[in-house]
UniProtKB/TrEMBL annotation:
Domain Signal transduction histidine kinase subgroup 3 dimerisation and phosphoacceptor: 212-277
Enzyme Commission numbers on file: 2.7.13.3
Taxonomic source organism: Arthrobacter crystallopoietes BAB-32
Protein name according to UniProt: histidine kinase
Histidine kinase/HSP90-like ATPase domain span: 325-411
Taxonomic lineage from the root: Bacteria, Bacillati, Actinomycetota, Actinomycetes, Micrococcales
InterPro entries (UniProt xref): DUF7134, HATPase_C_sf, HATPase_dom, Sensor_HK_TwoCompSys, Sig_transdc_His_kin_sub3_dim/P
């Protein structure tokens, strides 16, 4: 399985779990039970259909008519398949009602049509569901117009019932069909809404995963670019001094080994989130003051004539903020080590004042002839992305008197930048 598909499945599982918890809280205890046990809901509806139609069926049996009881059993059995075959079940329920009206003396119908209409409405568009509900009701109404039950006809003839009682009954049947369809349409709308929320949750989980991978890629760029540049400079220096000063060459090689080990440790930490089971975002590593000092000493060992000026209070304790400042310093000095030639001084200034932190790295070197980028071309863009998180900016370019300068301004969380 590819890494991308694995990440997608993990995000969807995470979103599904979170969404299931939210949906469960929205439902009451009975809805939660029947949502978790749909077969139980089917049996409840079948039982309700039987209980509603059984009195008339038994009355018909007492008159010697067994057909209503058989039709009730048929529609109840058909409702067991309502989820898989909503159209055929509705057709069976409607046919049972029509046959009951045309072939029995009582003409009593069951609630099977209402259940079937509701089920169909949960699977089709609202207009289709309402049209089918009205059509089913009109068919039963037409059957009542063709064959009115004997008892009803006698009551009308005797003046006990108004002549339009059949029309009223038919309208009531159509009305209840429409109500059943309306309930089904509402349920379908809620289900579609839940599905949309589910997709939204999955998309957000995928976005979070993509953001985490972007962060990993940015960290990898900084780690590899810095470490390799320092290691190349150290190896070149060792090659130069190995004959003249073997002891000094040994120190440089030791620094080379330490830089490589540090790079490996950083890469393992950064890539840990991609390992199996490492799907949760990791807390950012907070560079200690000693690590900043080691970073500076590493560049000095690689040959940079580095001067450091610190002013103002220490950096904020925000781990992301500290890591951002660390990476900007690291990237800026790495670029100096890569590209500057003939430099006599490199200056790093870190100043905190007026609600902001200013980082400046400048050198007096010159670019090499036919300079080509040694990296992926994302270093400056990465610094600007990091600074933008803290309402900051990064400006870089050649100095008027030669050399290169990088100026970054960051605003730490919880304080507004000062306005002049």
């Amino acid at each position: 399985m590819s890494e991308q598909s694995s990440a997608k499945e993990t995000a969807e599982r995470t979103a599904a779990v979170s969404f299931a918890e939210i949906s469960s809280k929205r439902r009451g205890p009975f809805r939660r039970f029947f949502h978790a046990h749909p077969v139980a809901m089917d049996w409840v509806l079948i039982l309700a259909t039987v209980l509603f139609g059984l009195p008339n069926a038994l009355y018909s049996v007492s008159l010697g008519e067994w057909l209503p009881l058989g039709l009730l059993a048929a529609v109840s059995a058909a409702l067991a398949f309502r989820r898989r075959f909503p159209w055929p079940v509705l057709a069976v329920a409607t046919a049972v009602d029509i046959l009951t009206v045309l072939a029995t003396s009582t003409g009593a119908s069951s609630i099977g049509v209402w259940v079937a209409v509701y089920t169909l409405a949960t699977t089709v568009r609202a207009a289709v569901a309402l049209a089918v509900a009205v059509a089913a009701g009109l068919l039963v109404l037409a059957a009542m117009g063709i064959h009115m039950p004997a008892e009803v006809a006698e009551s009308i003839a005797a003046g006990e019932l108004p002549p339009y009682v059949g029309l009223v009954s038919g309208v009531i049947i159509v009305l209840f069909n429409v109500i059943s369809a309306g309930i089904g349409v509402t349920v379908r709308r809620d289900r579609l809404h839940d599905l949309e929320l589910h997709r939204w949750a999955a998309d957000n989980a995928m976005l979070a995963s993509a953001n985490e991978r972007t962060r990993i890629a940015r960290e990898m760029h900084d780690v590899v670019a810095h470490s390799l540049s320092v290691m190349v400079a150290l190896s070149d220096g060792a090659a130069v001094v190995v004959k003249k000063d073997p002891h000094r060459a040994g120190e440089v090689l030791g620094q080379l080994s330490a830089t490589g080990r540090t790079a490996l440790a950083d890469m393992r930490r950064v890539l840990g989130v991609l390992r199996e089971g490492g799907t949760q975002p990791q807390a950012p590593r907070v560079p200690a003051e000693s690590e900043v000092a080691e970073l500076i000493e590493g560049f000095r060992a690689a040959g940079l004539p580095l001067k450091v000026v610190m002013s103002g209070p220490p950096l904020p304790e925000d781990p992301n903020f500290k890591l951002t400042a660390y990476r900007i310093i690291q990237e800026s000095l790495t670029n100096v080590l890569r590209y500057a030639r003939g430099m006599t001084e490199v200056e790093l200034t870190v100043a905190r004042s007026d609600g902001r932190v200013s980082i400046c790295v400048s050198d007096d070197g010159r670019p090499p002839a036919n300079m080509k980028s040694l990296g992926a071309g994302q270093g400056i863009a990465g610094m600007r992305e990091r600074a933008a998180i803290y309402n900051g900016q990064v400006e870089c370019g050649p100095r008027p008197n030669g050399g290169w300068i990088v100026e970054a301004t960051l605003h730490w969380p919880g304080e507004e930048p000062a306005h002049g």
